Amino acid sequence: MAFPEELLQRLKQSRVVAGFSVENAEHAVPLTRALLAGGIDAIELTLRTPAAMDALKAVCADVPEMFVGVGTILSPETAEEVKAVGADFGVAPGMNPRVVRAAQQAGLPFAPGIATPSELEAAIELGCRFVKFFPAEASGGIPYLRSMAAPYKHLGIQYFPLGGLDAENMSAYLCEPNVPAIGGSWIVKKEWVDNENWAGITARAAEVIKRLTKDNQ
Ligand SMILES: O=C[C@H](O)COP(=O)(O)O
Ligand SMILES: CC(=O)C(=O)O
């Protein structure tokens, strides 16, 4: 499946997606609720720890208000499992055609990671119109994105930048007409999760939303 328009619109409303990993699956629900309490209603839970799949199951079951994205989907089997668990969408750091096809067959809205025109063309050939731009800042940031995206503008490609984003540069990315949402790991500090500092995470999420609102005034 390509990335359905209604999900793109949902991401566009959220604007900011909080990326994180958890070492302890029991942290996922309170962490997700802490983000929601601060005004962030979209996540990218990365599959980089043994606890990740249980964490995903818990969030999908217990926090239906959250828009649940899953990151670091590196195999076709994982794409199928993520869909079966009930995630809203998936992403990956790279453009693996086997993973894109598996996501399409499973019905998981999926944005592969791209950082070059060749990777972008491979994604386009597979029917993708929404891609993750990763690693955004290290690749050259907004000037690079503009330059890379120019030849494909008529195809209506939309980009989801992650990698080196933070409160200082998020709004500049969101001003780009082909960027419905951005994300990053800077919002959820690992030590806050490890120390179960949910109030700290709510406060950080609220700061990010406040800054976004101020930047848009
Ligand atoms: O997809 C998740 C990436 O790790 C985000 O990059 P970041 O850690 O630089 O925000
Ligand atoms: C980095 C990234 O894009 C991911 O883990 O999905």
Walkthrough of the structure:
47% of the residues lie in helices and 15% in strands. With 217 residues, it is of the alpha/beta class. A 6-stranded parallel sheet has the order 5-4-3-2-1-9, with helices on both faces. A 3-stranded parallel sheet has the order 6-7-8. β2 (42-46), α3 (52-62) and β3 form a beta-alpha-beta unit. 42% of the residues are buried.
Based on DSSP secondary structure assignment, what is the total number of beta strands? Answer: 9
Classified in CATH, the superfamily is: Aldolase class I
End-to-end Cα distance: 36 Å
CATH hierarchy: architecture: Alpha-Beta Barrel
Organism: Novipirellula artificiosorum
EC number: 4.1.2.14
Keywords: Carbohydrate metabolism, Lyase, Schiff base
GO molecular function: 2-dehydro-3-deoxy-phosphogluconate aldolase activity
Give a short synopsis of this structure.
The protein is α/β, with parallel strands linked by helices.
Record the SSE blueprint.
Layout: H1 5-14, E1 16-20, H2 28-38, E2 42-46, H3 52-62, E3 67-71, H4 76-85, E4 89-91, H5 97-106, E5 110-111, E6 113-114, H6 117-125, E7 130-133, H7 136-139, H8 141-149, E8 158-161, H9 170-174, E9 182-184, H10 190-194, H11 198-215
Parallel strand pairs: 1-2, 1-9, 2-3, 3-4, 4-5, 6-7, 7-8
The site of glyceraldehyde-3-phosphate has 11 residues, from strand 2.
